[in-house]
Specification:
By secondary structure, this protein is α/β, with parallel strands linked by helices. 27% of the residues lie in helices and 22% in strands. Strands 4-1-5-7-8-9-12-13 form an 8-stranded mixed beta sheet, with helices on both faces. A 4-stranded parallel beta sheet has the order 15-16-17-18, with helices on both faces. Helix 5 runs parallel beside helix 6 (251-260) and helix 8 packs antiparallel against helix 9. The longest helix is centred in the middle third of the chain and has 14 residues, at 125-138. The relative contact order is 0.12. The mean pLDDT is 95. Bound molecules: aspartic acid (ASP). Aspartic acid is lined by residues 9-11, 56-58, 87-89, 113, 115.
């Protein structure tokens, strides 16, 4: 078994600098080699590829998603699995994007990182890397996933939950794919089946996407021009099961105009757990009537990534609306 580790940056490989933690080119390989367990007999063969420049994941864009996805695709036949070392801040976005970009993925792609850098004695990076490499070599999963703090989560179901806890990610609407205790225990019923089709890569375009979070007293008119002219895809984070303030009627004509202009608007919930159900309350009916689509229980991260993906596939807005409401990679429950 052979695993390719793709190091993109993030806290895991950062060192102390005068301006706080930052990645340092050329440092990480020696730090990884210095972990005795990485050379243990039980470990698979592994190789490291360092991306340049190394990034704090706050600086990740579609360009870097494309680079990572290309590295996986170019090396797909030569390795049994992939580990992507990544900053935690936007790891759930990258995991979601990769899940759409890597179609018919038949091998594990595991994203991980750490809250404490490897250069510190209490680093959580060691277990995160070692377990991720073992999962990547295990051949049990055929999807993009995220391992952190003892749990293996579906990548497009994960969301960063804690800014300083070592269990930094949760998957509020889907069970963990595996738990790593004394043994790594997989939840077989939660795993995606091995795909039958041929593996395919879809690169993404930098489509203008926006996220709007509603709050009491929101003045929708202030968002009118960006919603109707500038954005092609919008994720609207509503209250509860898809509700917007009563004055949401102001939103109705805006959404209609936005849709007429080719913009696709998906409704997500501000509640991490549970699903959007448009039309259950009067306050969500306006959205439904105007042509907004339900994101069901999708995370905002996955909704953003899915919009990028569907627009990059070149579909028209009608098809994008249809596919946003379908489960493509296990990202939502209908
Ligand atoms: N700012 C860092 C990053 O996302 C945080 C981390 O890695 O935990 O790159």
């Amino acid at each position: 078994m052979k695993v390719l580790i793709i190091y993109t940056g993030g806290t895991i490989g950062m060192v102390r600098t005068e301006n706080g933690y930052a990645p340092k080119e050329g440092y990480f390989r020696a730090a990884l080699e210095a972990i005795p367990a990485m050379h243990a007999e039980e470990m698979p063969e592994w190789e490291l590829l360092e991306m340049s420049p190394l990034l704090d994941s706050s600086n990740m864009t579609v360009v870097e998603w494309n680079k990572i996805a290309k590295l996986v695709a170019e090396n797909y036949e030569r390795y049994d699995g992939f580990v992507v070392l990544h900053g935690t801040d936007t790891m759930a976005y990258t995991a979601s994007a990769l899940s759409f970009m890597l179609k018919n993925l038949g091998k594990p792609v595991v994203l991980t990182g750490s809250q404490i850098p490897l250069c510190e004695v209490r680093s959580d990076g060691r277990d995160n890397i070692i377990t991720s490499v073992l999962i990547a070599a295990g051949g049990r999963v055929h999807e993009v996933c995220l391992y952190f703090g003892g749990s293996l989560l579906r990548g497009n179901r994960a969301t960063k939950y804690s800014a300083d806890g070592l269990v930094a990610f949760v998957s509020p609407n889907y069970p963990a794919l595996a738990e790593a205790g004394i043994e790594i225990r997989y939840r077989r019923s939660a795993l995606l089946p091995k795909p039958e089709g041929k593996f395919e890569l879809r690169l993404l375009e930098s489509v203008p996407i926006g996220v709007i979070k509603v709050f009491p007293g929101i003045q929708f008119s202030l968002f009118e021009s960006i919603m109707t002219e500038k954005l092609r895809g919008i994720v609207i984070e509503t209250f509860g099961a898809g509700n917007i303030p009563g004055d949401g009627n102001a939103l109705l004509p805006i959404i209609r105009r936005a849709f007429a202009n080719g913009t696709v608007l998906t409704v997500c919930s501000q509640c991490p757990q549970g699903a959007v159900s448009l039309g259950t309350y009067e306050t969500s009916n306006a959205l439904k009537q105007a042509g907004a689509i339900s994101g069901f229980d999708i995370t905002t991260e996955a909704a953003v990534a899915k919009l990028y993906y569907l627009f990059s596939c070149g579909y028209d807005k009608g098809r994008i609306k249809e596919l946003m409401e379908q489960d493509l990679r296990g990202e939502l429950t209908i």
